[in-house]
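Tip: read the tokens left to right.
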């Protein structure tokens, strides 16, 4: 493919992050950095560190290592490998200068910014690979990017791509991933999103009068809903279901990956509980997709495709179809290209 060098762009794709290896010290290093983010565990620093260092790291690290071991690739972390494949596909399609960074661990945002500085790239586009607004992802990433650029490359001009939870091309890409699996045998399509404490939803509501104040708050078209993670996710589900011509009984949204040691009030319904109860309700043929992740990772490959599958089948389920993340699907790459070109 021939690319116009005059249209060259400098792009930094940012994803969440992953341990450097399966060594327990690397698992602990990753969890410590991730969970010490004030936008992830948003508690007073002393209390946060007591929970992280005395409770989570000693007890959760071995379990996390076992989970990563079940899905680790020959070249390392699936999240990093899949994000690299996204970057490679975007480069192939556009000829742009595309780098990858992780919010936590390596490749770091700092090293990526310094690399742009070394190449004298003075104008870049930052693309956080999160479809939905959340203080623990989009906001945390923006704050860290702002901090690093101010400290290490203050003359850099940069723009940040906004979440794309309702973009027509995102909805179309998800729908095309799902469509081959939709049949008359389907009992339920589950959109499983990463969970958040309800506290995060309320703290992200600047009006302090809207989010989680009623059962229908996410159905109201307002600025608060547009910036609300729960509203974003429910809109993604609804739009994809409409694209697939599914009725309300054929699909649902749920939330996974909760950590109740920090806060017991998380967004509901819970994916694992729903899957355990489905067969007794006659729901034995399901499809599940995780739209809050654009690249397959621990939460999709191990938590859903392995553990959730086992939970469902043991409870009496018959067919469990996990639909992979968009990864470097051509429709998703086209979406990235359009969003970046519009900046």
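Filled-in amino acids:
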């Amino acid at each position: 493919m021939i690319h116009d060098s005059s249209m060259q762009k400098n792009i930094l794709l940012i994803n969440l992050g992953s341990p450097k290896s399966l060594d327990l010290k690397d698992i602990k290093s990753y969890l410590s950095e991730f969970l010490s983010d004030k936008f992830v565990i948003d508690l007073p620093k002393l209390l946060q560190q007591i929970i992280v260092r005395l409770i989570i790291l000693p007890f959760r690290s071995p379990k996390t290592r076992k989970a990563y071991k079940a899905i680790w690739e020959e070249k390392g972390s699936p999240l990093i490998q899949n994000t690299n494949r996204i970057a490679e596909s975007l480069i192939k399609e556009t000829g742009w200068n595309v780098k990858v960074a992780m919010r936590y661990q390596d490749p770091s945002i700092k090293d990526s910014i310094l690399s742009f500085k070394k190449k004298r790239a003075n104008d870049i586009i930052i693309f956080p690979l999160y479809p939905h607004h959340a203080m623990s992802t989009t906001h945390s990433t923006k704050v860290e990017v702002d901090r690093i650029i101010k400290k290490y490359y203050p003359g850099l001009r940069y723009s940040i791509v906004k979440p794309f939870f309702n973009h027509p091309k995102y909805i179309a890409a998800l729908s095309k991933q799902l469509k081959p699996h939709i049949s008359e045998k389907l009992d339920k399509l589950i959109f499983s999103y990463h969970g958040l404490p309800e506290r995060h939803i309320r703290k992200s509501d600047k009006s302090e009068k809207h989010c989680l104040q009623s059962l229908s708050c996410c159905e109201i078209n307002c600025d608060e809903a547009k910036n609300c993670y729960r509203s974003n996710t429910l809109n993604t589900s609804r739009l994809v279901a409409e694209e697939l011509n599914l009725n309300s009984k054929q699909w649902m949204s749920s939330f996974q990956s909760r950590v109740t040691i920090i806060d017991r009030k998380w967004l509901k319904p819970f994916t694992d509980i729903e899957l355990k109860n489905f067969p007794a309700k006659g729901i034995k043929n399901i499809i599940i997709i995780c739209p809050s992740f654009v690249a397959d990772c621990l939460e999709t490959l191990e938590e859903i495709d392995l553990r959730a599958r086992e939970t469902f089948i043991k409870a009496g389920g018959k067919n469990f179809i996990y639909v992979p993340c968009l990864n470097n699907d051509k429709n998703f790459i086209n979406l990235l290209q359009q969003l970046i070109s519009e900046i």
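The domain at 5-163+330-341 is CATH 3.40.50.1400 (Rossmann fold). The chain is about 45% helix and 15% strand.
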